[in-house]
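The protein record filed here.
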Amino acid sequence: MLSPQTIASDCKSKSWKIKLLYDGACPLCLREVNFLKSKDGDRGLVKFVDIAADDYQPADNAGIDFKTAMGRIHAVLPDDTILQNVEVFRQIYDLLGIGWIYAITRLPLVGRLADAIYGVWADYRLLLTGRADLQTLITEREQRLAACQDNCVINAEINYTIILAITDRQTS
């Protein structure tokens, strides 16, 4: 089902400069996202896309499917360029004016080391946060989406209509 937040964010202008794909079911990922949202404020420079949401669509995110997105952090630029790993953080932090935090990772040796450390974290992230393995999450997601397909489409259409009505009232 499309969440009201997803629909409302799509109704806003496309002013984002980078789209961050994050796992909204990961507690540590959410801490980082909340920090980044606080730094972005109302500027809308970063579009935050929860890959764990039932309405996540690869077609809207440079073709990055759920399994791929869950394996490593990804971001998408407006021209559909895909970023991965520590480069995602470098670019977002730069955009938000706090690039100095990741500046040292621009040095080739440090950058490779940072990517290697991130790779280990990404490989064990689900286990370390007490979640099921990736294949189980994929299977559960597929079953959930298949079970709600008809109902979710109807609910999404109703939610979209409600959001449009609210948006129209606010702009009048």
